[in-house]
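To illustrate the input format used throughout this study, we show a single complete record. The first block contains the structure-token representation of the backbone; no residue identities are included at this stage. The design step must infer an amino acid for every position from geometry alone.
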């Protein structure tokens, strides 16, 4: 199996393996502000590199993982987190996808109901005669003996 390709450059790697592991874990939790659906660990964008270096700098200064995250959230907002916290201000981020899916499902359900009712009504209605068929029917009715006349 192929291993995932990370964007971390050799000059970014910290000499202390424990600190590097912390930096990589934090980098996987942070969103690239340019790519938006990639972590800064996966992104090769210049801004992602700057954020990776900033994370490593804060770790070197002795910040805990939570302090690094708090620093970045204070600077960039909850959007910098790939998994923002569930709170009142991030409620649209969490509810938008389920609401769109629910709305789409309801729209499809309504469309299929209307379509099936229209198809049922068309099936229940007698078929329409063409002009040629109506003329032929009128001719047959006109030439038919009326009720009570001998055939």
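Output of the design step:
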């Amino acid at each position: 199996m192929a291993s995932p390709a990370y964007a971390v450059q050799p000059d970014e790697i910290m000499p202390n393996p424990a600190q590097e592991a912390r930096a990589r874990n934090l980098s996987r939790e942070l969103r690239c502000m340019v790519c938006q659906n990639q972590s800064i660990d996966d992104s090769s964008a210049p801004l992602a590199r700057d954020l990776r270096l900033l994370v490593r700098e804060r770790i070197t200064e002795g910040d805990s993982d939570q302090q690094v995250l708090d620093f970045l959230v204070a600077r960039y907002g909850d959007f910098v987190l790939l998994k923002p916290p569930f709170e009142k201000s991030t409620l649209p981020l969490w509810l938008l996808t389920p609401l769109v899916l629910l709305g789409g499902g309801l729209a499809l359900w309504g469309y299929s109901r209307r379509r099936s009712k229209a198809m049922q009504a068309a099936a229940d209605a007698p078929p329409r005669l063409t002009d040629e068929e109506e003329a032929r029917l009128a001719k047959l009715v006109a030439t038919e003996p009326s009720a009570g006349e001998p055939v």
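Structural context for interpreting the output: The chain has two domains: 10-85, 86-123. The helical segments are 17-29, 46-60, 65-76, 91-124, 131-143.
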